[in-house]
Amino acid sequence: MSERVIALLDQRPPILPLPPLLAEQDLSALPVDRLRRPLTDLRISVTDRCNFRCSYCMPKEVFDKDYAYLPHDQLLSFEEITRIASVFVDRGVRKIRLTGGEPLLRKNIEILIAQLAALRTPDGQALDLTLTTNGSLLARKAQSLKDAGLQRVTVSLDGLDDAVFRQMNDVDFPVTDVLAGIEAARAAGLGPIKVNMVVKRGTNDHEILSMARHFRGTGIVLRFIEYMDVGATNGWRMDEVLPSAEVIRLLQTELPLVQLDPSAPGETAERWGYADAQGLYDPTLGEIGVISSVTQAFCGDCNRARLSTEGRLYLCLFASQGYDLRQLLRDPTKSNGELAATVDAIWRGRHDQYSVLRSQQGADTTHAPSRRVEMSYIGG
Ligand code: SAM
Ligand code: SF4
Ligand code: SF4
User: Is 270 contained in some domain?
Assistant: First the structure.
C-alpha cells in the first residue's frame, strides 16, 4: 500500500489495511463485533460537498473556495454504492441512511434511491430507507424522492428565527425555504419526519422552546442534539454544549413531558412524550427526542457503520481511519462473497466506543485520535 502525504487540513485520514481473509470464511452467522454489537444500520455519504457552512460542521474558514473536495471519479458510483449496500444487507443491515455533505446535491440521487429501494433482505423485506438533509432543496425534490422509493426524511433545522438560522448555516439561507421543504416532504408522504436541531449554548439555545411549540402536535418529531466534538475543524468547546438534561428541564417549564420507552435497540435518541392535563402521554401532541452524544454515551448498542463518499468504511463517528472498500469494488477479480467476508471480518474486529471512553475521562478529549474524520465526509 502506498504512503500518502497528508496536508495539515486534509480531511481524509489514512486508510487501514483490510483484514486477511480465511480461505473458507464462514458466513452462516451474521457478524457481531467484539462488544457483541450486531451490524444493522449503514449510513452512506453520497457527497462531501454542501451548500451550507454550519460552523459546527463545515466552518467557512476551513471549507473555503480553496478546499479540495473529492473529484468525481473518486466518489463511489451509484452502481458501486448499490452493490456494497447489498453486501451489507446480506450481513445484517436493515436500515440505510443517505447523508453527506448535503445528499440532495448529488446529481440524480433519485436513481440511487430507486436502486436501494429495490434491495431486499434475505427474508424478502424492503429496507428502512431514509435520508438526512439540510432541507434547502427539499421543496423542489420531495415528490421525486418519494416517487423513487425513499420512505422518510430527517431535516436539520437549528432555529426558527430567521436571523439565528442564517447565522447557523452561515450562508444567509432563509428559514422559510427549509420550512417549505418540510411541508413538501409531509405533502409527499415522506414521514414520519424528524427534525434535528443541534443546540449550541449561547448561539441557538434560546430557540429551543419556540422550536418545540412549533412542532408540537404536528406529527413531526423534533430532536435536540448535543453539539459534538466530531471532526477536527469546528473548534469544539465543552462550554458550548448544552446537556440534554438542561434541554428537558427547560421544556418542562412550559410543556410537560413524560419519558417514553426506546423504540428500537440502538436508538440514539431518548424519547419524551408531551403530557396531557393528567400528566399522561398524549399521542396527539407527539414526542421529542434528545440525543446526548456528549453527556451520555450510547456506544453499548451502537450498530452503525458509515461508508464515506469514496467508499471507506468507518466503524465510529470519531474514527480517525477507515477501510478502503473501493479498492475491492473496483477490482474485477473480487466477488460479492469476498466483499461480504471482508465486511464480516472488519465488523468482527470492531471495538470502538469513543463516547464511553470520553465520558470516563470527563470533557477531556486529549485521548481522542488527533485526525478525526470530518462529519461532512462520513455523514452524521
Ligand atoms: N447536510 C445534511 C444535514 O445537515 O442534515 C446531512 C449531513 S449532516 C453532517 C448530518 C447531521 O449531522 C445533521 O443533522 C447535523 O446537524 C449533524 N451535525 C453535524 N455536525 C455536528 C456536530 N458537531 N455536533 C452535532 N451534530 C452535528
Ligand atoms: Fe452541510 Fe449538513 Fe454539515 Fe450543515 S450539518 S454544513 S448542512 S453537511
Ligand atoms: Fe457509536 Fe462511536 Fe458514537 Fe459510540 S462514539 S455511539 S461507537 S459512533
Answer: yes
Residues whose beta carbon lies within 6 Å of some atom of ligand 2: 50, 52-54, 57-58, 100-102, 134, 156, 376
3-state helix, strand, coil in the chain (%, to 5): 30, 15, 50
Look at the alpha carbons of 343, 346, 351, 355 in this order and tell me if their dihedral is positive or negative.
Answer: negative
**Total number of domains in the chain:** 1
Best residue among 58, 104, 158 to mutate for probing ligand 2's pocket (most ligand atoms within 8 Å of CB) is 58
* Domain extent for 46: 33-378
> CATH number for the domain including 247?
3.20.20.70
Asked, for residue 290, whether it belongs to a domain, the answer is yes
Beta strand extents in the chain (DSSP E only): 15-16, 41-45, 95-99, 128-133, 152-156, 194-199, 221-226, 257-259, 270-274, 287-291, 304-307, 312-314, 322-324
Give the residue, by CA position, lying nearest to ligand 1 atom 12: 380
- Separation of CA 374 and ligand 3 centre (Å): 14
Is residue 79 situated within a structural domain? yes
- What is the full per-residue pLDDT of the chain (380 aa) written as tens digits? 344 443 444 555 678 988 877 556 778 899 999 999 999 999 999 999 999 999 999 999 999 999 999 999 999 999 999 999 999 999 999 999 999 999 999 999 999 999 999 999 999 999 999 999 999 999 999 999 999 999 999 999 999 999 999 999 999 999 999 999 999 999 999 999 999 999 999 999 999 999 999 999 999 999 999 999 887 777 899 999 999 999 999 999 999 999 999 888 778 899 999 999 999 999 999 999 999 989 987 899 999 999 999 999 999 998 989 999 999 999 999 999 999 999 999 999 999 998 888 777 765 554 455 567 778 777 66
- Distance from residue 375's CA to the centre of ligand 1 (Å): 7
In a domain, 14, yes or no: no
